[in-house]
Amino acid sequence: MSTGTGDPKELGVFLKARRADLEPLQVGLPDTGNQRRVAGLRREEVAQLAAISTDYYTRIEQGRMQASVPVLEAVARALRLTGDQRTYLFELAGRVPSEPPARSSRDVTEHCRRLLDQLTESPAVVLSDTMDVLAWNRLAAALLTDFAQVPEADRNYVWLLFNDPVLRALYDDWPAGAHACVAYLRMHTARNPNDPRLLSLLARMAPRTDFQHWWQTCEVAVQSTGNKVFHHPIAGTLTLDWDTLTSSTAPDQHIVVWTAEPDSPSHKGLRVLAAAAQQGAETSTLPDSVRERLT
User: Fold this and answer.
1) Calpha distance 125→28 (Å, rounded)
2) Given a cut of 90, is residue 25 above it in pLDDT?
3) How many CB atoms lie within 10 A of CB 94?
4) Which residue intervals define the domain HTH cro/C1-type in the entry (predicted)?
5) What would the pLDDT profile of 122-177 be if each residue is shown by its tens digit?
6) CATH match for 8-93 among 3.40.50.2020, 1.10.3290.10, 1.10.260.40, 3.40.50.300
7) Which range among 34-48, 160-174, 190-204 has the greatest average pLDDT?
8) For residue 163, how many other CB atoms are within 10 A of its CB?
9) How far apart are CA 74 and CA 72, in angstroms?
10) CATH topology for 110-294?
11) Numbered ranges of CATH 1.10.260.40 in the chain
12) What was the pLDDT predicted at 277?
């Protein structure tokens, strides 16, 4: 498959640079000890490693032939390309790789956790493609649920939304929110239908007739931005906008952030929750004096 774009000239420059970076011993070829006319690998050596003819590889490097996807995959392996270099190779060739990019770790980076912690007036969580809750800040725990107290196997936003009555009761329009989450989850099946976590979640959700009804409609959606109304027992009614930010280094991790209009009742409500979270107090026992001072 072709993307319809490509730059054969730049492709040749890139391939020459990459083979110049490698020595025969690095790729398992014998070093004859003879003086080499070019730095790094010769064209015939790259062709040998990629199991193609020297003429075929030469024409690719000279921009006289568009390589097939399998050949590009073989050349990428022969040249020991990194993930980013491999992506660049396919972009220059105007091709779509047959193999999906390597999945990122479920571990959330330290700087991402720091970002969450510094969002002191905005609840934020990190969700995986299957909507596992990977990280959260203090205000998200105060608004939604204390994820740290949820068993890791149940720490999935879809699972909690359907099975946790407290989280469910927060939603002003629970059916719309739950339906949307099912659509987000189904979108993931196109990217990785055999994801073990996805299959496990679907098996666990099988007894839920409401989930099954929405799942079978085959509706899909991408998490982007929206608006939600929550009825919180302490902060009251909160009208919050939410945005989804996807990490460039971990494309299957999505930071969802809820914000409120400045100086609005919802903004003041979030500040009430932030004060409670900062003090390490239970939101149900927040002193009236704190609430009055912030409102």
Assistant:
1) 46
2) no
3) 17
4) 36-86
5) 999 999 989 999 999 999 999 999 999 999 999 999 999 999 999 999 999 999 99
6) 1.10.260.40
7) 160-174
8) 15
9) 5
10) Beta-Lactamase (3.30.450)
11) 8-93
12) 78
**CB-CB contact of 117 with 141 (8 Å):** no
| CA distances in angstroms from 29 to 73, 181, 237, listed in the order given | 20, 52, 69
- Residues listed for the chain: 295
Residue 35 has pLDDT above 80, yes or no: no
Structure tokens, 83: 């993930």
Domain(s) of CATH 3.30.450.180: residues in the chain: 110-294
* Residue 233 amino acid letter: P
Question: How distant is the alpha carbon of residue 12 from its chain centre?
Answer: 32
pLDDT digits (tens, 9 = 90+) for 88-119: 899 899 888 765 555 556 789 899 999 999 99
